[in-house]
Amino acid sequence: MFAAIGYSHLINHYRLDALPLTQEASYAPGIQRRASRQQGGRLLTLFPAKYWPQEGFVAHLQFALRYEGINLEVLALLFARLGKQELQQLQQWLSANPESRYARTACHLYEWLTQQPLSIDDPVSPRARYVQLADPQLQLAFPRGEKHSRFRVQHNLPGTRDFCPLIRLTPYLQGMMAADLQGLTATTLARYDQDLLRRAAAYLYLKETQSSFEVEREKPSPQKAQRFANLLRQTDTHSALTEERLVALQQTIVDPRFHEFTWRGIQNWVGKDLSYRKQIDFVPPRPSDVPALMGGLLALAQQFQAQERQAQALHPQLGGTRKNPDPVLMAAAIAFGFIYIHPFEDGNGRIHRYLIHDVLAKAGFTPRGIVLPVSAVILANLDDYIAALEQFSQPLNQRTDFDPSQPAFPATGNDAIYFRYPDLTAQAEFLYKALERTVTQDLEQEINFLLGFDRANMLLNDLLDWPGHSRELFIRLVHENGGSLSANKRKSHFAWLQDEELQSATAQVNAAFVTQQS
Q: What is the Cα–Cα distance from 365 to 327, expressed in whole angstroms?
């Protein structure tokens, strides 16, 4: 028989209106060591008898902080519900254990989240060493943080009260962080000469642009595609992420009729308009909550950039390879945080994917002048991408009520607290999977395709005297069709080719790509 402990116990006991935990802790008296299992779409961690916390609010809070990390959503809801008796227990816990990391953490978080002081003077000796608030072995945290002398804690949470996401360091994420995809990217690119990489970069920027639009089921005009590709080239300029910059991005990628000049002022929604009814899949936060949420997200981006500059200054001999916190986790926190806040009426999806590149480029994860075709991987794995998005949006949507046909009535259930402290673990895992495939498969394949394309162009130019655009179209159509030109494409584009010319040209294209693959 399992019994809820830690955060699960606190949620049940105090009837907290929290989103379902993606990882829960339970007491299982019949086991000898900790074990984990998937159950109902969540990870259930079982703890043997020796971990059973004593009864009471403080015992379960200490267990949660020690073994489950800092879940600000649950803690904010819990601290708002505490009565006089629980507050006395919280203060007595620290008074009796002034050296306890978890007592100090709990008291600091209470005052930070509620902005209300506890009735306790000089709680910790000024000679006590500072302790980190968040355990970097359990969750995303900064290596350095602001020191708070009252409880002698180093506040290393990523973000502010207005936006501070949770990413738990699962075994998968820990393994990917140790795999050094950044180093693998550099090794892969080092095999090619610089002239080729410059041409490959131009190709990859356009491919990433095209894929990003296709995820939204849009076909951009050549001018709009080029504008977005130019924006991607600017990600490594280290320009700070600000409201003005995001507004400029929005105005660049959407039709001028839908330009916005600040955060949205209406309640938007994501779904389908089926004429007779609206299928609502997700309702972002209320417009009155957006400025504070976006202020918090932008503050997180600026904190990360400052941490990167400080790490580079402290460890210049590492050439910027010292990455703590991990840039992929930070890209997930900022990009997915943005898409859930949905601060504009249009263009949010493309900016969300742009932000992935912006964060990675600033952190030096991708070499200067190169973009990884992440959106192409997203497009090829759209179901997994949607599942990652719905990990957060679906549970929230189940408690949200909004009728788009009556916009005068505000949405309910989409409270700001859920967007302030989202658990983005699943989204971080998805991004790492997409980047792993990008680096280990797609990047080299794209460059090799470009080499094969160049060789085919040269061979066909020697074979026939035909316009360059026509020649390049022929190469692409043959390659995409598995090594032959379809009858329809020949009729519509290459009716002028004689049979012998077609046969020779097709053979040359196939030989060019086979030679490159070998």
A: 7
SS3 call for 276: coil
Domain boundary among 98, 125, 155: 155
HEC string for 30-44: CCCCCEEEEECCEEE
Q: What is the pLDDT along the chain (518 residues), one digit of tens a residue?
A: 678 899 999 999 999 999 999 999 888 888 888 888 887 677 888 888 888 887 789 999 999 999 999 999 999 999 999 999 999 999 999 999 999 999 999 999 999 999 999 998 888 999 999 999 999 999 999 988 899 999 999 999 999 999 999 999 999 999 999 999 999 988 888 887 777 777 777 777 777 787 887 787 777 777 777 777 777 777 767 788 999 999 998 998 888 888 999 999 999 998 877 666 778 899 999 999 999 999 999 999 999 988 877 766 665 544 444 456 899 999 999 999 999 999 999 999 989 999 999 999 888 888 877 888 888 888 888 999 999 999 999 999 999 999 888 877 899 999 999 999 999 999 999 999 999 998 888 888 888 888 888 888 888 888 888 887 888 899 989 988 999 999 999 999 988 889 998 999 999 999 988 865 54
Residue 351 lies in a domain: yes
Q: What is the pTM of this model?
A: 0.89
Domain count, the chain: 3
Q: Rg of the chain over CA atoms, in angstroms?
A: 27
Domain end marker among 155, 181, 202: 155
d(CA 465, CA 390): 53
Looking at the fold, whether 247 and 391 belong to one and the same domain comes out as yes
Phi and psi at residue 166, to the nearest 5°: -110, 125
Residue 357 CA to its chain's centroid (Å): 11
Nearest to 108 by CA among 68, 77, 149, 78: 149
- Is 263 strand, coil or helix? coil
Collapse the DSSP code of 280 into the 3-class scheme (helix H, G, I; strand E, B; otherwise coil) and give the result: strand
Per the structure, the complete domain to which residue 247 belongs is given by: 194-438
Q: Do 244 and 324 share a domain, yes or no? A: yes
CA distance 123 to 336: 38
Q: Which of 451, 442, 447, 463 is nearest to 513 (CA)?
A: 451
Q: Is the residue at 283 inside a domain?
A: yes
User: Which residues, at least 6 apart from 102, have a Cβ–Cβ distance to it below 8 Å?
Assistant: 61, 62, 65, 66
Domain identity same for 294 and 430: yes
Task: Enumerate residues 6+ apart whose C-beta is below 8 A from 26.
Answer: 2, 3, 4, 5, 8, 44, 45, 46, 47
Quick check: is 315 in a domain?
A: yes
